[in-house]
Amino acid sequence: MRSAILSLVGGASTVLAAARGFNYGSQGNTLETYEAQFRTAQGLDTTSGWGSARLYTMIQEGTANTVISAIPAAIATNTTLLLGLWASSPQDVFNNEITALKNAINQYGSAFSDLVVGISVGSEDLYRTSPTGILSNAGTGQSPDVLVNYIGQVKSAISGTVLGSKPVGHVDTWETYTNGSNSAVVAAADFIGLDEYPYYENTEQNSVSNAKNLFFSKYDAVAGVANGKPIWITETGWPTSGPTENLAVPSVDNAETYWKAVACELISRNIPTWWYILQDSASPSFGIVQSGEQPKYDLSCPSVATSSSAAPTSSVASATMPTSAAVSTTLDISNAVPSASYAASGVTSKAAVSSAASSVASVAPSVSSAVSAASSAAGSVIASVAPSSAAGTTVMPVTTKAATSVADDGETVTIYSTTLITVTNCGSTVSDCTSTGMSTAVSAKPSVTSAAASSVVPSGGAVASGCPADINGAYQYPHLIIPVDSANPNKAYGTQYNGTVNSKVSTIFNFDIPASYAGKTCSTVFLFPQLDQLETSSYSFNDKGGFTIAVLNGVADQSTTYANAPAVAKQIGSVDSLQRGSSHTLSQDACPAGARVSFEVTSTNGLDLEWFNDYNPSPLGLYVRAC
Ligand SMILES: *[C@@H]1O[C@H](CO)[C@@H](O)[C@H](O)[C@H]1NC(C)=O
Ligand SMILES: *[C@@H]1O[C@H](CO)[C@@H](O)[C@H](O)[C@H]1NC(C)=O
Ligand SMILES: *[C@@H]1O[C@H](CO)[C@@H](O)[C@H](O)[C@H]1NC(C)=O
Hints:
The chain has 3 domains: 2-275, TIM Barrel; 350-446, no CATH class; 475-626, Jelly Rolls (Sandwich), CATH 2.60.120. 27% of the residues lie in helices and 25% in strands. Helix 3 (70-77) runs parallel beside helix 4 (91-113), helix 4 (91-113) packs across helix 7 and helix 10 (208-223) runs parallel beside helix 11 (252-268). The radius of gyration is 25 Å and the shape is elongated. One 2-acetamido-2-deoxy-beta-D-glucopyranose binds next to loops.
C-alpha cells in the first residue's frame, strides 16, 4: 500500500534527487563534443536525470591552463558539475589547475558556480601509489600529505569567491580510504568520492550476480571510516566487452544486470552518482551508448506502479523509505538536480533551509525525517496529527515536494513540504487506492521569519564546555572575512585571508552552517597556537589585551564597511587576556543549521592582532565547530 501511495503522490509532484551523471574525460573533447554528450546524457531512452558531469581536470587538453570547454558546454546545456583538479603532479604543474579554476570563476561567474556540485582534488592518486596500483602499472600517484596540502590550496583559492561554499573532496578507490595511512585525506575532504568496480575485484567472488553485494560491502567499509562525511559514487560501471576478470564477464546482458542491481539501488538510496561512462571506444568498454546515441541496454529501473504486489500495510507510523526498487521511481525525477547554492541564494532562503531542511547525505529521505523536518518548521500542526491509524484509515505524512536543494559540504539537502494523506481501506494495488480515494490534509510550509529569529542569535553568557576547542571533527571555516575600520568608516575592504583586530579595526567572519548540522551543537572556537607550531600560516600579536565576539543581526558581504555594517545582535563570548598557545571555546548553542551567520571580533584592552585564518597545521583563528 505504501508503494501505491507514493506512486500516486510521485505522479503529482517531485522529490528532489541527488546529482547523477557520467564521467567525461578530457582527451579529444571540444566544446562541441562536450555539448553533444551532455545532451545525449539528458535525452537517454529508458532513463532520465543524468544531467551531471564529473571532470578530471580544469584544463582544456593541449593548453597550459585554459579553462576546460566542458564548462561553457555545461552552461549551455544546464549540466551540473563535479569539478576535478588533476593532482598527481608537482606543485608547479598543479598551479595550472588552480589558475584554470580561478579563470573559470572570473570568466563565467555565477552561471558557472550555480552548476557546481563539488570540487574533487585528485582522482585515484592514492590508489596509484598503493601496491595494487603499482602492480597494475596505474601510473604516477600522489602522497596523502601532498593531497591534503592541495585540498587546502583549493579551499583557499575559492574562499570568498562564488565557489566559496562548495564542498572540496577527493576521489579514490575503497581500499585507499580504509587504509589508515590515508586518514588525513578523509579528514581534509568535505566529501568522499568513491570509485568502485566489482569487475576489477578479481581476487573476490566477482560474478555479476554477486556484484551488488560486493559493491555495497565495500561501500559500507568506506562508510565505516568516513567520519560521517558524505560518500559520492564517482565511478562505477560494468563493461559490455573486454577481458574476463576472474568471475566477471563483460557482456551487454551483464552490464544491464549490473545497472539494474547497482545503478537502480544508488538511485533508490538517492546517493550522488557519476557512472562510468557515457561512451568510449576502449577495451574493456564501459560505455552505455554507442554511435547512434541510444543505450546498448535497457536502463530503466523497476517502477512503483508495477510493484503493486507489495503487501498491504495497515500502519506506516514507523516507516522509513525502503531501499527496495518499489520507491525508486519516486526519487527518479529528472528535473530534480540540485541547482541552488548558498552563494547564490539570499539570506531569507537560507533561513528557510534551516527551518525546513532535512539533510539527506547519501541516504534516501525517510518518512520519519520528513516528519521531523516538518515538525521543526510547523511545530504542533504536524506533530499532533502524524501519523495515525484508525478503523481502516491511515493518515501518513508523505514528502511530496522539494522546494529547493543545496549541495553544501557534500550533502544534498532537500527542503520538503510534507503532506498528510488519508487513505481509507487501501488495498494492494494502485487502482484500489485510487478507487477508495485519498486526500491531502495539510501542507506544512516552513516559516522563514521564525527560523531566522531563532537560529541567528545563539545565546550568550557562560563559556561552553561541550564541543572541544579544536577542529578535529565537523567544523566550518569562514567563507568571508571582512575588516571594518573606524578610521576609514566608508571603506569596504572586501574579503581577506587575514583577520585583523586592533583598536581601530574589527573583523567580521561569515560562516555558512550546513543544513546537516541541524540538531547538533555548534560552538565558536578560537585557536591560537605558538608561532613555531604553524607551518603555512602566521600571526603578529602585541601580547596585550583580549577580544569580544558578537553575532550580528544581519549578514556582511563584500561591500560591508564600518559605517554600514550590520549591528551587533548580541555579544556571545570573549577572551580577556589572550595568550600564545591557547585554544578557546567562545560560545556554544544549537547550530543555526542552513543559515549564514556573521560574527564580529573586536579588540579589548589594547589587543593588536593579525592572523592568517588557516586550518592547516596547526589550525589558527576562528572556526565553528559542530558536535
Ligand atoms: C596505505 O597507504 C599508504 C599511503 O598512501 C601507502 O604507502 C601504502 O602502500 C598503503 N598500503 C596498502 C596496503 O595499500
Ligand atoms: C536547469 O536545471 C534545473 C534543475 O533541473 C532547473 O530547475 C532549471 O530550471 C534549469 N535551468 C534552465 C535554464 O533550463
Ligand atoms: C597576514 O598576516 C600575517 C601575520 O601577521 C602576515 O605575515 C601576512 O603578511 C598577512 N597577509 C596579508 C595578505 O596581509
